[in-house]
Specification:
The chain is α+β, with helices and mostly antiparallel strands. It is about 45% helix and about 25% strand. A hairpin with a 3-residue loop joins strand 2 and strand 3. The protein is elongated, with a radius of gyration of 24 Å.
């Protein structure tokens, strides 16, 4: 149950429109809110996808073939987010000291075809590494 306080003009307009539409005020409000939420969530989803693609394009354009990041061990939300973006844990962990001590797990995502490197034993030409901290 939801109670909304509003001006008399808005309530009057709600009554008028819902009467024209042959639906209750509750149905009208629910319909409008659902449409607004759907538009917001769609925009948010598109922006996240575009941002992710943009970051990957930048890294690829600079010759990076592998992205690695460290996620705090207890941060399940960040883990799920990066897994949904194609990152996978490789089983490595380390202790980070950022004012406090935290355990972190490494995640990797290959950005393009691996190119053998003479300077590294990883088999990748370049790797970008990030630390992700969401407390």
């Amino acid at each position: 149950r939801l109670s909304i306080s509003s001006s008399k003009n808005i309530v009057s307009s709600l009554k008028e429109v819902s009467k024209k539409e042959h639906i209750s005020i509750n149905q009208f409000i629910s319909s409008v809110v659902s449409k607004k939420l759907s538009a917001y969530m769609t925009e948010e989803y598109i922006n996240k996808r575009a941002e992710r693609g943009f970051r990957e394009k930048i890294l690829k354009s600079r010759g990076y073939r592998l992205a690695m990041l460290w996620v705090l061990a207890g941060n399940d939300q960040a883990k799920k987010f990066y897994e949904s973006m194609g990152f996978n844990t490789d089983g490595s962990s380390k202790t980070l000291n950022i004012g406090k001590t935290f355990e972190a797990n490494r995640y990797r995502k290959q950005l393009g075809a691996a190119e053998p490197s003479h300077s590294s034993g990883h088999g990748y030409r370049r790797a970008a590494e990030f630390v992700v901290i969401f407390l």
